[in-house]
Amino acid sequence: MANSKYEYVKSFENEDEMMYPNLIVVRIDGRNFESKMLSLIVSFFASLYVAKWREFFPTKGMISTPSFKSRVICCPSMEVLQAYLAWRQRECHSKNQYNTCLWMLVKNGKSEREAHEVLKGTQKQEQNEILFQQFGINYKKLPSMYRQGSCVLKTEVDDTLKISNNEAPVKRLRKKVIIVHSENIASRSFWNDYSCLCKEIGGFEQNVNNIKQEYVKSFQSENKFSEVQGFEKPNDEHALKLMNSCAVAVLEEFNDIVFAYGVSDEYSFVFKRNTPLYQRRASEIVSATVSFFSSTYVMKWKEFFPKKELKYPPNFDGRAVCYPSYEIIRDYLAWRQVDCHINNQYNTCFWMLVKSGKSTREAQSLLKETTMMDNGVVAKSHKKAVVEHPNIIEDEFWEAHSLILEETSPRSQDVLSI
């Protein structure tokens, strides 16, 4: 396919690759209830969270859309990974013990402020005494999931496969995902109990007692989905409208997003120049935005596909790119719309040939060397998100909507786009 003059904007993109042999940990934190790898995982997690809600809360509706901010943690050695796991479990224990005391005090008549004052400066033993003496609760008897957190890992199990009635069953090993709880997930004994962990990652040489402070400081595919869901080719109007509706929800949720452009299975969101969102940490901005979009997609599915079951949780890849001037952000958006026209025109020809009886290979061969529909633009007009389908390549649209990118000026400042 032809290239456009606007493709130079791709040079501003940086890969989020974490170099081998670093061990990568993606941490997801819940919000709204009190690199590509990162965005795919957090997007898929958010989709599953919404899809599984009814399974665990059959009588309770989901009132607000969840999103999750996340970070990629590089662990250059097994020692660092061990320290990270020990730190997270100790945080789990201390926060859960404090919160258990807090809410028991609140349930027994204290205000939240009064409960915080009672617990101010208390240590582990004092909190244990409060729970036992005032409420008859032995903290160590509470469910392990509350006190220790949960470990999800893949282990190998024997699987018996019977190919036919005339042949003997065949035994083989397969991977099975399990959830386990342990008092010390960073201990050698726990790690060594699961040979798959040692095999896939490595083992711990010794138990960890004190976590080094410097460690703690450092810690501080859509195509498959569309096929499974049976989307109309080359353009499924309901799927495109669902994407647009999700983009509107994103603009309404994140005040610092001033403009969005969508095509097919992608959306670009432009943030105002001086956004302080998440201290401008790219990973947290991307993960919060993409997880909110994913959650909204699942929540709104029935609105656009009332008779079609959501068979497979969607996930969306995302990245943050800084563009240094107003002109370049204009060229970026022009590039995406030019790409939209080129790809959609090709795909329309391709699928019409296939529907007329050609094989996919024959259709590709016919279109080889041949030399256009977009989802839409979402912009904020008087602080209300609206969907339009204009030409954003030429000046006319921007002259008529000069206030959209006003907050990305002066032109010498970086503009953030994801």
TrEMBL record:
<dbReference type="InterPro" id="IPR007537">
    <property type="entry name" value="tRNAHis_GuaTrfase_Thg1"/>
</dbReference>
<feature type="domain" description="Thg1 C-terminal">
    <location>
        <begin position="328"/>
        <end position="374"/>
    </location>
</feature>
<dbReference type="GO" id="GO:0005525">
    <property type="term" value="F:GTP binding"/>
</dbReference>
<keyword id="KW-0808">Transferase</keyword>
<keyword id="KW-0479">Metal-binding</keyword>
<dbReference type="GO" id="GO:0000287">
    <property type="term" value="F:magnesium ion binding"/>
</dbReference>
<dbReference type="GO" id="GO:0006400">
    <property type="term" value="P:tRNA modification"/>
</dbReference>
<comment type="similarity">
    <text>Belongs to the tRNA(His) guanylyltransferase family.</text>
</comment>
<dbReference type="Pfam" id="PF14413">
    <property type="entry name" value="Thg1C"/>
</dbReference>
<keyword id="KW-0342">GTP-binding</keyword>
<feature type="domain" description="Thg1 C-terminal">
    <location>
        <begin position="80"/>
        <end position="167"/>
    </location>
</feature>
<feature type="domain" description="tRNAHis guanylyltransferase catalytic">
    <location>
        <begin position="223"/>
        <end position="324"/>
    </location>
</feature>
<dbReference type="InterPro" id="IPR024956">
    <property type="entry name" value="tRNAHis_GuaTrfase_cat"/>
</dbReference>
<keyword id="KW-0819">tRNA processing</keyword>
<keyword id="KW-0547">Nucleotide-binding</keyword>
<dbReference type="InterPro" id="IPR025845">
    <property type="entry name" value="Thg1_C_dom"/>
</dbReference>
<dbReference type="InterPro" id="IPR038469">
    <property type="entry name" value="tRNAHis_GuaTrfase_Thg1_sf"/>
</dbReference>
<keyword id="KW-0548">Nucleotidyltransferase</keyword>
<protein>
    <recommendedName>
        <fullName>tRNA(His) guanylyltransferase</fullName>
        <ecNumber>2.7.7.79</ecNumber>
    </recommendedName>
</protein>
<dbReference type="GO" id="GO:0008193">
    <property type="term" value="F:tRNA guanylyltransferase activity"/>
</dbReference>
<keyword id="KW-0460">Magnesium</keyword>
<dbReference type="Pfam" id="PF04446">
    <property type="entry name" value="Thg1"/>
</dbReference>
